[in-house]
């Protein structure tokens, strides 16, 4: 209960008065001259001096103006009766103020006014005037610029995508002249050693050309920035290597890899040097019929991973003088079909933007008669992006067609998803 009383101003005032009365009695009681004139009845109050850090208040229209260079407190010397000084220490109901009403924008030297000290003390601030800068209050939208530092020191085999802040702009409120120095909110992010997508939070602030913080208010005061990090990859064609020979009297008509492309992971520099991958040599020794063989792919030097690591190869073999049937393998031909439209399944356009090849060129195989009559409208290429997060993804392509032919390549495609920044609606 007593703690509550000590927090009440009225209680402190009562205590101060009681202390003043006690001081009066002590001084009056020390007078032993025996004089009975009026002067002897007056208290011989002790004089003193003390220093306070006095808060400074400013009188002006804060909805229209911004005042700079205002100190929060000013050291002030107060001289007077000890009882008055004691009350000031206890109550602290005093301050210094300046009045900026009616002043124009610019620099002004303004005199301080003391308030609440009482008439029986002498108040001397360390400085009697202060120079303030008065500026018109404005609000402007400032773009957010994320600077990714040490991108060359990211984890080996990884690349960093475009950083996505939760807001693309920040509302900055302050003096018109001060805000001229703010062209963007700079957010530096170090990506050294990063090997996965991450999010960091930052307190919003702007600095001038010398790196000094600019006094202003920001909305929002904090930003979250997501930086996508993913493996660097590249797709390349697969070359099938062979060795030995089929049995005498037979011949190899076609060697067809079921998978025609491989995806390689590594640094951008190393991947740029690789144009294709090869299989280990497939033995044709003694073959007399068509067979399927599983064969390993030879991983190039300096890549971190490869998908797949092996593929199935169809080796088409027949007799050298075999009589042609209605349709033999030799009747089957290859054709390139350009401009096939790619359709996306499961794409959430409210959360992401997407970058991909909207049309592709296909290599197909079929009978010459069938191939002669097909075009891009006979094939539908589909990629499923359901549930994917931000970043670059290598995805398989599925083909739908009512015609009798096979699509040899491409098998997959790179697509890049970028999150759409979240925006907040400000209430009026």
Q: Strand portion, in percent?
A: over 45%
Low-confidence regions: 28-44, 324-330, 423-428
Number of domains: 4
Summed over residues and divided by their number, the pLDDT gives a mean of 82
Helix segment count? 7
CATH topology of the largest domain: RNA Polymerase Alpha Subunit, Chain A, domain 2
- Which sheet architecture does the biggest sheet show? 6 strands, mixed
Q: Which CATH architecture of the largest domain is right?
A: Beta Complex
> What is the percent of helical residues?
10-25%
In terms of structural class, how would the helical and strand content be classed?
Answer: mainly beta
How many strand elements? 33
CATH top level class name of the largest domain? Mainly Beta
Kindly provide the radius of gyration, computed on alpha-carbon positions and rounded to a whole number of angstroms. Answer: 42 Å
Amino-to-carboxy terminus distance: 44 Å
Shape descriptor: rod-shaped
Walk me through the structure.
- This protein has 4 domains: about 1-125, RNA Polymerase Alpha Subunit, Chain A, domain 2 (Beta Complex); about 135-230, RNA Polymerase Alpha Subunit, Chain A, domain 2, CATH 2.170.120.40; about 235-320, RNA Polymerase Alpha Subunit, Chain A, domain 2; about 325-420, RNA Polymerase Alpha Subunit, Chain A, domain 2 (Beta Complex), CATH 2.170.120.
- The protein contains 7 helices and 33 strands.
- The protein has helices at about 1-5, 10-30, 40, 80-90, 175-180, 270, 370, and strands at about 45-60, 65-70, 75-80, 95-100, 105-110, 115, 120-125, 130-150, 160, 165, 170-175, 185-190, 200-205, 215-220, 220-225, 230, 235-240, 240-245, 250-255, 260-265, 275-280, 280-285, 290-295, 305, 310-320, 330-345, 350-355, 360-365, 380-385, 390-395, 400, 405-410, 410-420.
- The strands form 9 sheets. Strands 2, 5, 8, 11, 12 and 14 form a 6-stranded mixed β-sheet that branches. A 5-stranded mixed β-sheet has the order 6-4-1-3-7. Strands 31-29-26-28-32 form a 5-stranded mixed β-sheet.
- Residues about 30-45, about 325-330 and about 425-428 have low confidence and may be disordered.
